[in-house]
Amino acid sequence: MCNWQNRISPYGIGNIQLNADVFADACNIIFQASRQRNKITYSDLMSQLRQLNHRKIFRGTIGIILDEVNLQVSSITNPSIYPSAIVVHRGTTEPGPGFWNVACGLKPPVGIAANRRSVQLQQYQNDVFNRSWKCNC
After folding, report:
1. Both ends of the chain: CA-CA distance in Å?
2. φ/ψ of residue 100, rounded to 5
3. Whole-prediction pTM value?
């Protein structure tokens, strides 16, 4: 089971605090999309988090949230699953460039050569859609 905790992250010229509930809810939203075999856009994820009355949810914080979701889920799944593989930019099938900096779990995105990313992304997305997370977000 994931161990969600409040996090203080550097942001801009200061720090921003995100509550554990934000991470758990983001994980659950992505999990629900995965059960329907759907990708979800960054803006849809932000909108759904705001509908759950979370504050400080905007373009600058969504990467922090996704990093934590990946860290938690990849650490409890074997082989590791990277949920943010299905969080994509509107009009594309690609996650943001930060996805390729994820360094946690087994076979992390950070180690994938640029010329192999499209093939590996397909595998990461299939893993999110088809494997058990055992997360109980």
Report:
1. 8
2. -75, 0
3. 0.93
